Amino acid sequence: KAGVTQTPRYLIKTRGQQVTLSCSPISGHRSVSWYQQTPGQGLQFLFEYFSETQRNKGNFPGRFSGRQFSNSRSEMNVSTLELGDSALYLCASSSDGRTSGRANEQFFGPGTRLTVL
Amino acid sequence: QKEVEQDPGPLSVPEGAIVSLNCTYSNSAFQYFMWYRQYSRKGPELLMYTYSSGNKEDGRFTAQVDKSSKYISLFIRDSQPSDSATYLCAMSDAIKAAGNKLTFGGGTRVLVKP
What we know:
The complex is a heterodimer.
Chain A: E1 5-7, E2 10-13, E3 19-24, E4 31-38, E5 42-50, E6 53-57, E7 64-68, E8 74-78, E9 87-94, E10 107-108, E11 112-116
Parallel strand pairs in A: 2-11
Antiparallel strand pairs in A: 1-3, 3-8, 4-5, 4-9, 5-6, 7-8, 9-10, 9-11
Chain B: E1 4-6, E2 11-14, E3 19-25, E4 32-38, E5 45-51, E6 54-58, E7 61-66, E8 71-76, E9 85-92, E10 103-104, E11 108-113
Parallel strand pairs in B: 2-11
Antiparallel strand pairs in B: 1-3, 3-8, 4-5, 4-9, 6-7, 7-8, 9-10, 9-11
């Protein structure tokens, strides 16, 4: 089974621009979560989508948004980029325990490294 | 204070030694406990998954959870240079309706020297 894929792997943007990142979950997984990883703050939860609905949200400003499509693929968008948005953005997919019996078992993609200049 | 505390290291051990990692947490609602390994410039890889208190063993890895002390541990036996990575603990209090949200420790960098 193919793992979680994220595109693009690397992005360089300037302040004020917006960016869209894409995530394709493991086949059959319906939950997609997004995390931001920085050296100072570590891994922080952004939001989670399940069956095209946002089910959970972290403490990030409204500039960070996401959506999920009917095929479970997800995108996240960051508008009006700031220097502090430079980070590794990780997507994780989960079957929500339906097949493994393990709730919250999340599998991560390789991440998109965003640099804001 | 963060909900999950983890010593950042680095933790340097000789090849073949036991690596001992731990996390403490403050949220008594956490029920699911995971350990991830992350190599440089890669996404985290799930190593161990436990529910509630107790021990779990998988090959060279042993995970322990002590909910009464709010303390979890990961032990790596017969460590290899390929075990050099950052190890992250993660926790969740998820009730199914609330969805998936993992709270991570800051990670411990481990270096296994040949």
